[in-house]
Amino acid sequence: MMISYLVPVVLVLMLMAASIRILPEYKRGVVFFLGRFQAVKGPGLFIIIPGIQKMEVVDLRVITMDVPEQDVISQDNVTVKVNAVLYFRVVDPEKAIIQVEHFVTATSQLAQTTLRSVLGKHDLDEMLSERDKLNDDIQEIIDASAEGWGIKVANVEIKHVDLDESMIRAIARQAEAERERRAKVIHAEGELQASKKLVEAAHVMSANPAALQLRYLQTMNDMSNKNASTIVFPMPMDLMEAFRQMAKPGGSD
Q1: Which comes out higher in pLDDT, residue 127 or 202?
Q2: Any alpha helices (H) in 72-208, and if so which ranges?
Q3: Are 58 and 93 in contact (CB under 8 A)?
Q4: What are the backbone dihedrals phi and psi of residue 26, each rounded to the nearest 5 degrees, phi first?
Q5: Which residues, including other chains, have CB under 8 Å from residue 59's CB and lie 6 or more apart?
Q6: So what's the pLDDT on residue 82?
Q7: Which residue from 7, 84, 143, 145 has the fewest beta carbons nearer than 10 Å?
């Protein structure tokens, strides 16, 4: 007699245990009643009727997803391997369950195709030097496409752009040539500035012959301070002037 009462009690307890659901703060439950969407529940404790109601649990925390390495052909026909990391979260659990099957897989595939299509429109130099701009472009495209799935893309970061050895050597040669070009330009600018200063000094010395004599004596002093085997005989500047006068037509014999 006791068993006849015990069995229903056990069944009721099992039914209650199967009906009680507890969701933490970062999860939501999408509830279907006889196959039709009923409500989004959680967090906290609530009851689901087994066999009549069904619940799909969705995590609202930010999901970190590695975008697998993709072979990308840049606009200047260079083949590179690029991978990235994607940060996204579910903002509308109803759309994430109803509008798309396996929203995580769908977002991963969307990120891979977007990564290839966006990077394929840029040169290799832009991939290496303008990553912030490319990250923003990829994020905007993925976010716009995934908005209908109830997903918000927080950030996209390109992690690695891998090149083959021949391309690395070519880039190194290009960088070396660029450094040599800059060095030649700087040297030429220095020569131009020095020539301008020499012209200014020549104008000053031509206006004051004593300045030329002082410069001559300073040069002689600099040469005498060096440990060199060259012997220098100073010649008076007046003597050079006499020679110039003799060289003119009609000068004294």
Answers
A1: 127
A2: 93-98, 103-119, 124-129, 131-146, 165-207
A3: yes
A4: -95, 10
A5: 26, 27, 90
A6: 92
A7: 7
Looking at this protein, which amino acid is placed at residue 252?
Answer: S
Tokens for 218? 């300073």
Using the predicted structure, report yes or no on whether residue 231 has a pLDDT greater than 90: no
Amino acid letter, residue 145: S
Predicted confidence (pLDDT) per residue in 36-77, tens digit: 999 999 888 888 888 888 999 999 999 999 999 988 888 888
pLDDT of residue 40: 92
CB neighbours of residue 116 within 10 Å: 14
Interhelix angle 103-119/131-146, nearest 10 degrees: 140
Pairwise CA distance, residues 174 & 163, whole Å? 15
What pLDDT digit, counting tens, does each position of 195-215 carry? 888 788 777 777 776 776 677
Per-residue b or e along 131-158, where b marks 16 or more CB atoms closer than 10 Å to that residue's CB: eeebbebbbebbeebbeebbbebeebeb
Question: What one-letter code names the amino acid at 208?
Answer: N
Largest CA distance in the chain: 158
Instruction: Give, as one character, the DSSP assignment of residue 43.
Output: S
The predicted pLDDT at position 3 comes to 66
d(CA 85, CA 106): 15
CA angle 112, 115, 117 (to 5 degrees): 110
Place of tokens 């030649």: 184
pTM, 2 dp? 0.65
